[in-house]
């Protein structure tokens, strides 16, 4: 019997249940995919706790990799036996499973250089990093970025990509252990927000000027410090809300702090166009295949450990990428 993680009400990690499931034959436009590894992302907690409302009961997870077992007639972008990966939003919910039916459209074929574990650890994080680095700001060598959660999965990829582009990276972390991880992956300077004033230190590190761009995945707790770290006409990129959603504010605040730009992008809008998705995927998977960007899988869980995995994620006990090994 195959397994899947489902939940029947929004709430704490304990709402997650591992259940036996029957997986039938693929319908129109679908494939049956046997997972090898499943990605664990902070976005998963937003579905679970109700930040992203979805019909319940439902499955959990939006990213995984594996081997195509069966296809519906008419599916042409993949074949039985192909190694593939995917990420998405509502159209890929249900990744926490051993085998599943899934639309063929989101699937990305894997090259021989990319293992299924690496793919599950990097597809969502990698595509997120790709649009952050290639679609939001036209970076030039010498620009400085402030990167929150620098030791996280996206943070480690962004740091390495930033060095390819010749950028200076100031990363924020909560512990010395995470600081060491962030430095090893390209951070030039580290701010430990547990005992340092982020905005004050960012100004000190830029001779009072401020940074060109802030990538802020924390949200409520860091929003004002992020704005105060920016140079005049700098760009604030709200990537996530790990500490909670940002309270409403008067846009006049952006003018008062230096005619700042602010955006709250979502991955779904950068991979909705198949051609753009292919371009972004080609860039990130190309960097990884060539060894220019390394994917750190620092936590591996069994599917039955989904509750503990979510606890660890929310307690900020993880670094790099986390996956479920099937």
Automatic annotation (TrEMBL):
It comes from the Bacteria. The keyword Oxidoreductase applies. Keywords: NADP, Oxidoreductase. InterPro entries: ADH-like_C, ADH-like_N, ER, GroES-like_sf, NAD(P)-bd_dom_sf, QOR-like, Quin_OxRdtase/zeta-crystal_CS. GO terms for molecular function: mRNA 3'-UTR AU-rich region binding; NADPH binding; quinone reductase (NADPH) activity; zinc ion binding. GO terms for cellular component: cytosol. The keyword NADP applies. Residues 11-324 form the Enoyl reductase (ER) domain. This is Quinone oxidoreductase.
């Amino acid at each position: 019997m195959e397994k899947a993680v489902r939940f029947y009400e929004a709430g704490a990690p304990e709402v997650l249940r591992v259940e036996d499931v029957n997986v039938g034959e693929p319908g129109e436009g679908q494939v049956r995919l046997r997972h090898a590894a499943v990605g664990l992302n902070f976005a998963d907690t937003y579905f679970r706790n109700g930040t992203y409302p979805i019909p319940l009961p439902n499955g959990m997870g939006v990213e995984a990799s594996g081997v195509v077992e069966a296809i519906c007639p008419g599916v042409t972008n993949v074949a039985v036996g192909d190694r593939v990966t995917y990420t998405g939003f509502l159209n890929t919910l249900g990744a926490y499973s051993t085998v599943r039916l899934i639309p063929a459209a989101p699937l990305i074929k894997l090259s021989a250089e990319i293992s299924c574990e690496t793919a599950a650890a990097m597809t969502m994080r990698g595509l997120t990093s790709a649009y952050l680095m290639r679609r939001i700001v036209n970076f030039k060598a010498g620009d400085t970025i402030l990167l929150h959660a620098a030791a996280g999965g996206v943070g480690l990829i962004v740091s390495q990509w930033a060095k390819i582009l010749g950028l200076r990276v100031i990363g924020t972390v909560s512990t010395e252990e995470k600081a060491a991880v962030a430095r090893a992956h390209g951070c030039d300077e580290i701010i430990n927000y547990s005992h340092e004033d982020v905005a004050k230190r960012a100004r000190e590190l830029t001779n009072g000027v401020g940074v060109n761009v802030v990538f802020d995945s924390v949200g409520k707790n860091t929003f004002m410090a992020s704005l105060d770290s920016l140079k005049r006409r700098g760009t604030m990129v709200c990537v996530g809300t790990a500490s909670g959603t940002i309270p409403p504010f008067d846009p006049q605040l952006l003018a008062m702090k230096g005619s700042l730009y602010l955006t709250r992008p979502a991955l779904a809008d950068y991979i909705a166009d198949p051609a753009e998705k292919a371009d972004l995927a080609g860039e990130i998977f190309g960097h990884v295949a060539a060894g220019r960007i390394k994917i750190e899988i620092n936590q591996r869980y069994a599917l039955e450990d989904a509750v503990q995995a979510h606890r660890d994620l929310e307690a900020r006990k993880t670094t790099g990428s986390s996956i479920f090994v099937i």
